[in-house]
């Protein structure tokens, strides 16, 4: 049976350190963004954009696809009620970070947290080939 040598431990340690440093350098921290907004989209069309910062509000949506109730409370957003059969959107719980979303497929509804700076931005998020 081969035993690991001192140099093997150094290589493993260096690989772990490089991995952690790459993770922390490339991860975008969105929790500290102060200007957050909630963008509600129905069937691909923006229905409403609401400032999320310290906003407490209940939004009732009655569209041709269904009925939903969305609540904003202390920086969190959650689907309070939906008339869809599976109730997955209600079970998703609260979201608070930029990029988080709640989707109700039967009602064609998307609730997404965005940065207010992103609202007017024309930059591409990603390119897929």
Biggest sheet features: 4 strands, antiparallel
What are the low-pLDDT stretches, counting only 5+ consecutive residues below 50? none
Number of helices: 3
**What is the straight-line distance between the termini?**
46 Å
Helix content: 10-25%
Organism: Peptoniphilus olsenii
Keywords: Membrane, Transmembrane, Transmembrane helix
Transmembrane segments: 6-26
Protein name: NusG domain-containing protein
Please explain how this structure is put together.
The protein has 129 residues and is an alpha+beta fold. 22% of the residues lie in helices and 36% in strands. Strands 2-1-7-6 form a four-stranded antiparallel sheet. It has a three-stranded antiparallel sheet with strand order 3-4-5. The longest helix is centred in the N-terminal third of the chain and has 21 residues, at 6-26. The protein is elongated and about 70 Å long. InterPro entries: NusG_2_sf.
Write the layout of secondary structure elements.
Blueprint: H1 6-26, E1 36-42, E2 45-51, E3 57-63, E4 66-73, E5 76-82, H2 88-91, E6 101-104, E7 109-115, H3 116-119
Antiparallel strand pairs: 1-2, 1-7, 3-4, 4-5, 6-7
Output the keywords.
transmembrane, 7 strands, three-stranded antiparallel beta sheet, 129 residues, elongated, transmembrane helix, NusG domain-containing protein, alpha+beta
In short:
The protein is α+β, with helices and mostly antiparallel strands and 129 residues long.
């Amino acid at each position: 049976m081969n035993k690991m040598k001192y140099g093997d431990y150094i290589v493993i340690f260096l690989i772990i350190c490089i991995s952690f440093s790459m993770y922390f350098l490339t991860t975008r921290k969105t929790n500290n963004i102060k200007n957050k907004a909630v963008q509600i989209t129905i069937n691909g069309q923006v229905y409403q954009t609401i400032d999320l910062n310290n906003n407490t509000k209940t939004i009732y949506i009655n569209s041709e696809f269904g009925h939903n109730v969305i609540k904003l409370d202390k920086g969190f957003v959650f689907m309070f009620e939906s008339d869809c059969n599976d109730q997955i959107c209600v079970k998703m719980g609260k979201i608070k970070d930029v990029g988080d979303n709640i989707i109700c497929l039967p009602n064609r509804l998307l609730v997404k947290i965005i940065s207010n700076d992103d609202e007017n931005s024309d930059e591409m998020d990603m390119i897929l080939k």
